[in-house]
Amino acid sequence: MLDRIIKSNWWKWTGAFLVFFSLMVGLLTPLAPGIVSISPDSLQAGDSISIRIKTVNAHFLSKPAGLQGALSLENQYVIKSSFLHVLSDNEIQMSFKFPGHFSPQKGSVELLDLELASDYDGFLVLRQSVKLKPYSGKDSLIIHSISSSPATNTETFKVKSLTSQWFSFPYREILYESVRNLFFHVVMWFAMLTLFLISVVYSIRYLRSANKIDDIIAAESVQVGLVFAAIGIITGSIWAKFTWGDWWPNDPKLNGTAIAILLYFAYMILRNSLSEDQQKAKISAVYNIFAFPLMFVVIMVLPRITASLHPGNGGNPAFSTYDLDSHLRIAFYPACLGWILISLWIMDIRIRIRKLEEIRENQLVESSL
Amino acid sequence: MKPIFNFMNLIGEVASDDQFTGLRAQGKIYVVVIVVALVFLGILLYLASIDSRLRKLEKKD
């Protein structure tokens, strides 16, 4: 049954199609709207102020329905804009009449979130972007610290939970467009994990059957898995440089991956250092069975316990709604499956070459006898 | 680095700020371009190595 599937071609073309699909969706989907800059970015309690806001990918002029803006402090105090003037799709002028009693204590500054929402573009926020300085009026009686006085004209933002209504990838500061690397970097590791899993399964099978083909499959899937790991390391390094600011930040996920790759390099070196075929197969199979759980622990378990820059680690659930929204999933899951199938395709070709090599060697041995 | 062609038409307008220069320009889309190119290059190099292995096998004939 499994043999028939492996010999057929449909899964290879499925893999190719899925990768193509994820490439198209991953590169052509626009990014959700976001706030880029605001000026001025500070105000004084008791002031009337006009703030100019620049956004990207928004449609405030062409689809203005439900448009509103606000300044908020930790989502508890919300001051809605008193006047809102749309200059273009991505430029808005908002006025605020800021009450004097809504003031930080003298000498301190509070950081406010700037919020924008419309029916079409959903909810946009630039966190801690507006400095609020304390009230400087003469009447010192109306100055209270924010934490002790509830603001009078707070109105909850009703559209807060909405994401944009058009198909888009989430706008994240620091990441921006590079969120698309999810379909090109992260999937490499899923391919690698699948190949290493297949490898350990065939290593176990070899120890039970002593069939040489099982050993070949185990060795070749580690080979292909290491190539995908190398691509994953290089692409990850580039992505880290331009988001986290370092080619190799000291992150448990990265260091764990380095250890895992060294583990499997050792597997290849071990194989090449043993000349006797059966001994080679047996020892490397046993090593592989130890290497796989160790690899799983340093890549998947340890980074989850300690703090890590990677999402889904340091106690955060992987694939939470924040890290991986439903639009990203539409391209991410096909990309994963597609790259796994492509890696299996490459593995299949290598195994067939290896089998031919074995046959050829046996022929040479027979003819020399 | 100046954009080779304007991605804005393709994927919508993106952030352009002073701190976004070089590969960080245009909302860091060039990081994606490099990553996709490297994935492609990696697969291509691997293809070449498999090809040379097959060539060796053919030569043994």
The CA-CA distance between the termini of chain A, in Å, is 38 Å
- Low-pLDDT stretches of chain B: 1-18
Average pLDDT reading of chain A: 84
Q: What is the rounded distance between the termini of chain B?
A: 52 Å
Global geometry of chain A: elongated
How many domain regions of chain A?
Answer: 2
Residue fraction in strands of chain A = 15-25%
User: Strand order, biggest sheet of chain A?
Assistant: 2-9-8-4-5
Q: Roughly what percent helix of chain A?
A: 40-55%
Give the integer mean of the pLDDT values of chain B. 72
Return the domain count of chain B.
1
Please state the CA-atom Rg of chain B, rounded to the nearest Å.
Answer: 19 Å
Low-confidence stretches of chain A: 140-156, 315-321
Helix and strand pattern of chain B: HH
Helix run count of chain B: 2
Question: How are the SSEs ordered, and which strands pair?
Answer:
The complex is a heterodimer of chains A (369) and B (61).
Chain A: H1 2-7, H2 10-28, E1 34-39, E2 42-44, E3 48-56, E4 68-73, E5 77-80, E6 83-88, E7 91-97, E8 110-118, E9 122-133, H3 186-209, H4 212-243, H5 252-273, H6 277-305, H7 326-368
Chain B: H1 8-11, H2 25-59
Question: What can you see in these coordinates?
Answer:
The complex is a heterodimer of chains A (369) and B (61). With 369 residues, chain A is α+β, with helices and mostly antiparallel strands. Chain A has two domains: 220 residues, no CATH class; 109 residues, Immunoglobulin-like, CATH 2.60.40.10. Helices cover 47% and strands 17% of the residues of chain A. Chain A is built from seven helices and nine strands. A five-stranded mixed sheet of chain A has the order 2-9-8-4-5, with no helix packed on it. Chain A is elongated. About 7% of the residues of chain A have low confidence. Chain B is mainly α and 61 residues long. Chain B has one domain. Chain B has two helices and no strands. The N terminus of chain B is likely disordered. Chains A and B meet through α2, β1, α4 and α7 of A and α2 of B.
